Structure formats: structure tokens, C-alpha cells
Amino acid sequence: MERIVVNSSNLVSVGYDEDSSTLEVEFKGGAVYRYLNVPSFEYERLMAATSHGIYFNANIKNGYPFERA
């Protein structure tokens, strides 16, 4: 999955696969996680957010099942 580099103190890059509704997030420490069953509007809001990290923590981190990539 192709990820887009974001300007964040905690996140490095974010990618989204619409076919599988999977959000992939790379963190500053190098870990990559895949969040499953994430609707496309959630990805769009994350990318439009003033703070990607705050939006991610408030709306995605504990709201969707995930796996380490």
C-alpha cells in the first residue's frame, strides 16, 4: 500500500486501501500498523485534520481493530 508522508510529531505516513477499508499508519518509531474496517470518510477526515496525531488518537486508535504490519 502506498503511504503519504504527513506532518506530525507522532505519525510518519498514512495510506488507505478503499477496496479492503484498511488504513495503514507508520509511526515515528518505525512501527507500521494496519487498522481494519475503517470507512473512507475516516481516512479523508484524518488527512484533512489540522493535527493528524490528535485526530488519529481521538477517532481511530481505539476505534478499529488493528494488526502490526
Q: What does this protein look like?
A:
- With 69 residues, the chain is of the alpha+beta class.
- It has one domain.
- Helix content is 25%, strand content 32%.
- It has a five-stranded antiparallel sheet, covered by helices on one side.
- The chain is globular, with a radius of gyration of 11 Å.
- The mean pLDDT is 97.
- Residues 7-64 form the KTSC domain.
- This is KTSC domain containing protein.
- InterPro entries: KTSC_dom (IPR025309).
What does this entry show, briefly?
With 69 residues, the protein is an alpha+beta fold. It has helices spanning 40-48, 52-59, and strands at 4-5, 11-17, 22-27, 32-35, 66-68. Helices cover 25% and strands 32% of the residues.
Which keywords apply here?
69 residues, five-stranded antiparallel β-sheet, 5 strands, 2 helices, alpha+beta, 25% helix
Q: What's the SSE pattern? A: EEEEHHE
Number of domains: 1
Proportion in helices:
10-25%
Proportion of strand residues: 25-35%
The helix count comes to 2
* Biggest sheet statistics: 5 strands, antiparallel
Class per helix and strand makeup:
alpha+beta
Domain KTSC: 7-64
Pfam family, one: KTSC
Protein name: KTSC domain containing protein
Organism: Bradyrhizobium macuxiense
